[in-house]
Amino acid sequence: MKISKELMKGSTVQLILSCLSDEDMYGYQIIKKIKTKSKNIFNMGEGTIYPILHRLEKQGFLKSYWEKQIGLPDKKYYKITEKGISKLHEEINEWKKYTKAVNNVINMKSV
Amino acid sequence: MKISKELMKGSTVQLILSCLSDEDMYGYQIIKKIKTKSKNIFNMGEGTIYPILHRLEKQGFLKSYWEKQIGLPDKKYYKITEKGISKLHEEINEWKKYTKAVNNVINMKSV
DNA sequence: AGATTATATATCGTGTTACGATGTATACGC
DNA sequence: GCGTATACATCGTAACACGATATATAATCT
């Protein structure tokens, strides 16, 4: 089963910031980490993640730096900022509140 | 805290179908039920729910019928169809898979 | 040799969606 | 008279994920 595009919309930022709270990573690497960690449920495309990374950097949640490679395309690493960590905490908070609320509604009867 | 618009996007259909799997309801009533059940976390506007109900009916997940009122605007009740029940089960399935996957990713480290 | 796949970045167009704003109409309390 | 509640409807907007496309190198498969 593929997860619907619309479901993804609320959590992509959270997923990315969460990865980067562990260590600096580059876009292509984040895609794979999310894929692995989610047990192949999430398979973000490149056209999805790069614009998000750009956006997050512009908003001050991330900072980037290039690392030159030989025989491979250069890698653009992202580092989470203090502001990004705050954002992540907010997002996780909201996520918990949100999932709890949805479950409260759909568990009206025994599903 | 208000839940972000984008987070809502994946679950509105599920919430509505879930309400209607209990009993026939009209739009205005669904808004309040969701508000109550979610403990005021969700407060859908009318401009949100009516288009969704129309869409779901067009897609064959719901059927509607009017009930005349005296001294009040008439009420348009919605009844979930067999197809709607299947849809609800699919959505709940996807929801569980989705939340589990997100938690797998964000629990990489102790959050 | 040629094609595909993997690595790694970037951007553009498209479709979907929730939501506020606006409109219609009745009734009740201040 | 004015706001609020009940109950429906529609329109425009902004945000977003995603596929498609482009670029470039290297390894693997046919």
Brief summary of the model shown:
Chain A has helices at residues 5-8, 12-20, 27-37, 46-58, 82-106; strands spanning 25-26, 62-67, 75-80. Chain A is of the alpha+beta class.
Provide structural commentary:
- By secondary structure, chain A is an alpha+beta fold.
- Chain A has a single domain (10-106), classed as Winged helix-like DNA-binding domain superfamily/Winged helix DNA-binding domain (Arc Repressor Mutant, subunit A), CATH 1.10.10.
- Chain A has 5 helices and 3 strands, in the order ααβααββα.
- Chain A has helices at 5-8, 12-20, 27-37, 46-58, 82-106, and strands at residues 25-26, 62-67, 75-80.
- In chain A, strands 1-3-2 form a 3-stranded antiparallel beta sheet.
- In chain A, a hairpin with a 7-residue loop joins β2 (62-67) and β3 (75-80).
- The longest helix of chain A is centred in the last third of the chain and has 25 residues, at 82-106.
- The mean pLDDT of chain A is 94.
- The structure holds a DNA duplex (30 and 30 nucleotides).
The CATH topology of chain A is Arc Repressor Mutant, subunit A
Characterize the largest beta sheet of chain A: strand count, sense, and whether it forms a barrel. Answer: 3 strands, antiparallel
**N-to-C span of chain A:** 20 Å
Task: Count helical runs of chain A.
Answer: 5
Order of helices and strands of chain A: HHEHHEEH
Percent of residues in helices of chain A:
55-70%
Query: How many β-strands of chain A, per DSSP?
Result: 3
